[in-house]
Amino acid sequence: MKILLIGVLVISLLSLLYIAVSKRLGFAWLTRFGLHVVLAALGIYVVNFSGLVAEAYIPINPVTMTTVLVLGLPGVGLLLGLKMTMI
After folding, report:
1. What sign has the CA pseudo-torsion 71, 74, 80, 81?
2. What does the DSSP 8-state code read for residue 26?
3. What is d(CA 79, CA 44) in angstroms, rounded to the nearest whole number?
């Protein structure tokens, strides 16, 4: 089973490298990704320190950052809703 998973990982990595080299993506995607990370952190920071919802604090960790990166600012609302229902 481990050999199969490692094989899938290697094939995926090689496919991604092939796409990156053949399309000549450059570093524009890195700048865009960095901008999204900063905006995600800023959105969580605003929710935490605005005082609108005093009982909710969303930690800035890889899981919450990934959620906000994938979903955008509605991801902050999702995390806030989850936090409020769990409290």
Report:
1. negative
2. T
3. 9
